[in-house]
């Protein structure tokens, strides 16, 4: 398995995908990344997230299907006792303090090839051969990337970063806090949910839903489809106004902007 992944990564690194227009390249990338990450994610989560590590702002953390406190003044979240959508809408702000970055990690090197998910994205999406900061090819320094949100081209890896189409904090406050850790990790590393975007634009988007942030016009159909597909795949409750914005975009896009059949969640 690992050997297969490594040789695939190597062949992709030495023969970066040539320009084929936006959609085929993205399709290829998604399929490749999905093939790479899905089994790895499932394999790793069982062993990596034993009781260890960081606390959330509240001073506690989730472990398996429960939550416990470590610091004084720590409150219990309503995660496991609230019912239905109404309480989701009421308590959302309160629940932000229970968000624990570590449960939603995507900086990990899941396949042990010294490249994190971010580095693998950089290698796979560069339109020219990526160059590295060290001889082991762990960290990408330069390449050529199209930022779909702004339409701008970037050549220095530190200018861009991974944006989660549906932000992790948004997922957490919209039902994701009840997920098992393996599902949080899967969501955070799901190729459907990952786009390389200029850092400044990522800050501008922050944790906003589509009613408060949209990328450039040319990418809105695909963006809306990604939101819809991901929300269905992970069974997330979207804000009503976000759902309305998506519906409106979908109507404007017609059938051209739909996610291709093979990438729809089962
Ligand atoms: Zn603990």
Notes on the structure:
42% of the residues lie in helices and 12% in strands. It has helices at residues 2-14, 22-48, 84-95, 117-125, 168-173, 181-188, 199-205, 220-234, 240-253; strands at 60-63, 66-69, 131-132, 140-146, 153-156, 160-164, 194-198. Helix 2 (22-48) packs antiparallel against helix 4 (117-125), helix 2 (22-48) packs antiparallel against helix 6 and helix 8 (220-234) crosses helix 9 (240-253). Zinc ion (ZN) binds at residues 51, 61, 63, 68, 70.
The small-molecule ligands in this entry are: zinc ion
- State Rg: 19 Å
Strand order of the largest sheet: 3-4-5
What is the terminal-to-terminal distance? Answer: 24 Å
Q: How many β strands by DSSP?
A: 7
Structural class: alpha+beta
List low-pLDDT spans: 1-23, 39-50
Order of helices and strands: HHEEHHEEEEHHEHHH
Query: What proportion of the residues is helical, as a percent range?
Result: 40-55%
Strand composition percent = 5-15%
**Average pLDDT metric:** 82
Instruction: Characterize the biggest β-sheet.
Output: 3 strands, antiparallel
Number of helices: 9
Quick one: overall form? globular
